[in-house]
Amino acid sequence: MIRSFVVALLVALLAPALSAQTTVRGAVRDSVAGTTLRGALVQLVAEDGTTPFAQTVLSGEAGLFEFGNVPNGRYILGFHHEVLDALGLEPIARPIEVRNTEPVLLDLATPSPARYRRLVCGTIADDGGVLVGLVRDANTRELASGADVSAEWLELSISGTGISQRRPRREVKASVGGWFALCDVPRPGTVVLQAARGMDSTDRVEWAMPNSAVVRRDLWVGRAISASATMADSNATTRRTGTAQLRGVVVAADGGRGLAGAIVSVPGGAVARTNASGEFTLTGAPAGTRVLDVRAVGHFPERRVVDLLDSSPPARFALNSLQAVMDTVRATARRTGTSNLVAFEQRRREGQGQYLSADDIRRRAPVLTTDLFRAFRGVYWDGGGPEAAIQMRGIFGERCVPTFYLDGAMMNALSGDDLDLFVKPEMIVGLEVYTPGTAPPQFQNYGGGDSAGAGACGSIVMWTR
């Protein structure tokens, strides 16, 4: 009798507690990238300690998570994911309260792009973007604390006297956790990125900024060992080597057929050639974030930014045929023909200078605009860095800096890197090179402006579509 009473009393006391349990569910979202996060570590912990409850789950497909058998009480719900490290954020948490048996539906998310931009950069221009990421050591995979990260780009101003330019630059130092943020970079636009720590660095790589408030791009720094490719001093060339390798395939964009004999290379470094199936193995490449050139006969070349590590995932390159590119460009050229191109063709027939037409340029299939200057006598470009200028043989025999004209407007102090950044080869429909004294009057810099003196250097004229 007494035992039955005790059992009944316990059931009566425990029934409310047993029934006051529910589920807490939701999704984890990356608001910056506009995606959900799979594999996030989600935790639900009692806030005051009176309720002995703590659970951890991993978010699944579409970032979904769920906690079951959650008693009434106050809790802290939070998550962590590698995306937070890349954004420089601490684990995100928020308080919640469970009051009844109704399921609690609650999402977790990173800050919105606009709010994140304010948190990281404060007040910046409306058209300014934020480029964030992590810098890692390509050999050890560890975070590269204290690495120097820079971004630069070209800005042009058009006035009645011509086109002037400036090259804005942003420089930051990565945090202890390898995180960096470059604020107020152009969007959309193209920036040149580089990271360095001691003797390790990335290449100077182009990154296309979309029209997004926040963009993420991780960088890997590694050492490029310089070695002489030949033993003869007269023919010695310096090659960049390393321990990274990359496997992959080069195919035709139309049909996916493997391209035999295609060349895959790191500029100034390792070179590989594809087999009959289009497969290649690039070995001895400098580790880190690098530029890769891919060329195949009869196809438009591709230049891509890749992260070269000792075990990089396979890469796939799909190249368009030159015929497809030429057909597309020809249709556009007929529709947008101008008096400028008519005058270009007339000067080309007169033969006072050296010329490349749109068809000539497509046949050469340049990866960079500066590749075109190898076709001209007396023009020199050694790719010597962002300040290096294209040079010509002056009237007195010494090298000097020619005057550049872009679509008829004079350009001041235009470097080779500026050309590669601002003018893509596929944009060019005509190129003219004039030695001193041979340029038409409209393409002569009578005011001088270089060390050789007024009129002592030639002119380079470029027309774009």
**Strand percent estimate:** 35-45%
Shape: elongated
Q: What is the CATH third-level topology name of the largest domain?
A: Ferric Hydroxamate Uptake Protein, Chain A, domain 1
The CATH homologous superfamily name of the largest domain equals TonB-dependent receptor, plug domain
Rg over C-alpha atoms, rounded to the nearest angstrom = 30 Å
Structural class: alpha+beta
Mean pLDDT: 83
CATH architecture of the largest domain: Beta Complex
Percent range of helical residues: 10-25%
Q: What do these coordinates show?
A:
- By secondary structure, the chain is α+β, with helices and mostly antiparallel strands.
- The chain has four domains: 19-82 and 90-109, Immunoglobulin-like (Sandwich); 113-221, Sandwich (Immunoglobulin-like), CATH 2.60.40; 230-320, Carboxypeptidase-like, regulatory domain (Immunoglobulin-like); 323-464, TonB-dependent receptor, plug domain (Ferric Hydroxamate Uptake Protein, Chain A, domain 1, Beta Complex), CATH 2.170.130.
- It is 16% helix and 41% strand.
- The chain has seven helices and 37 strands.
- Strands 1, 2, 5, 8 and 9 form a five-stranded mixed β-sheet that branches. Strands 11, 14, 16, 17 and 18 form a five-stranded antiparallel β-sheet that branches.
- A hairpin with a 4-residue loop joins strand 1 (21-30) and strand 2.
- Residues 1-19, 230-237, 329-337 and 448-454 have low confidence and may be disordered.
